[in-house]
Amino acid sequence: MIRDPKLFPNPEEFIPERYLETVDEHTARRRDPRNYVFGFGRRRCPGNHLAESSLWIVMASMVATLDMKKAVDAQGNVIEPTISFENSVFRTPSPFKCDIRPRSEQALRLVRQATEA
């Protein structure tokens, strides 16, 4: 569903601004992943609110404390990650090189405290 080229042109590309487009209400509902990633109706995952809240906290913490960039090679050229997936069912991204560093010593301490808890 989320990879339907009719809803998302170039679905394999990372284009977050696609969610900023103004579309009609019906298309907006069909595009909103919260309407289908946790299942439907009576079979909907009962932990969806916990999962969304947990992911939000983790992602917000990472954005607040880490600088995340594309990796560079020995000559300083940016290494473009290849988009590929390990698992066709869960669509787990394949490993790729990246550069993730703490923004400051205080950020590093916060990350360490969180991982030790």
What keywords describe this structure?
single chain, 117 residues, alpha+beta, two-stranded antiparallel sheet, 3 helices
What form results from the Cα inertia axes?
A: globular
- Unreliable residue stretches: none
Distance between the termini: 37 Å
Spell the H/E element sequence: HHEEH
Structural class: alpha+beta
Helix content: 25-40%
Q: What strand line-up does the widest sheet have? A: 1-2
Secondary structure: number of strands = 2
What's the total helix number? 3
Largest sheet: 2 strands, antiparallel
Question: What number is the mean pLDDT?
Answer: 87
- In angstroms, what is the radius of gyration? 18 Å
Percent of sequence in beta strands: 5-15%
Describe this structure in words.
Pfam families: p450. Its cofactor is heme. Belongs to the cytochrome P450 family. This protein is an alpha+beta fold. The protein has a domain at 38-116. Helix content is 32%, strand content 9%. It is built from 3 helices and 2 strands. The mean pLDDT is 87.
Write a brief caption for the model:
Keywords: Heme, Iron, Membrane, Metal-binding, Monooxygenase, Oxidoreductase, Transmembrane, Transmembrane helix. The chain has helices spanning 25-31, 48-65, 105-116, and strands at 66-70, 98-102. It is globular and about 45 Å long.
Helices and strands, with pairings:
Elements: H1 25-31, H2 48-65, E1 66-70, E2 98-102, H3 105-116
Antiparallel strand pairs: 1-2
Family: Belongs to the cytochrome P450 family.
Cofactor: heme
Keywords: Heme, Iron, Membrane, Metal-binding, Monooxygenase, Oxidoreductase, Transmembrane, Transmembrane helix
